[in-house]
């Protein structure tokens, strides 16, 4: 029996900076998961992933990541995605510093 499709976002790494980025509904990339386009239909998600993969001048390693819908927007459902969105954990800098000061 096929697995039921769950909500997803397109994520990748920005080509120049390496930051984790998410595709938005207006075809731009954001560093905030809360601004990402959430896809609930498998065909649409596959199309958006193909569009992201067609932007090698902007991003690398695009893929679909599972999310759960919350009142604050999409939230990661897997440890890896939660870790990626907060950035390196070796010391308090960059995105980690921003999240800790909010």
Inertia-based shape:
globular
User: What is the beta-strand fraction?
Assistant: 25-35%
What does the main sheet amount to?
A: 5 strands, antiparallel
Poorly predicted regions: none
Count of helical stretches: 3
Number of domains: 1
Structural class comes to: alpha+beta
Trace the largest sheet across and list its strands: 3-2-1-4-5
Q: What is the helical fraction, as a range of percent?
A: 25-40%
Rg, nearest Å: 14 Å
**CA distance, first residue to last residue:** 44 Å
Mean pLDDT: 87
Number of DSSP E strands: 5
Succession of helices and strands: EEEHEEHH
Give an overview in words.
- This is Sulfite reductase.
- InterPro entries: DUF2849 (IPR021270).
- It comes from Roseovarius aestuarii.
- The chain is an alpha+beta fold and 102 residues long.
- The protein has one domain.
- The chain has a 5-stranded antiparallel beta sheet.
- The chain is globular, with a radius of gyration of 14 Å.
- The termini are far apart.
- The model has no long low-confidence stretch (mean pLDDT 87).
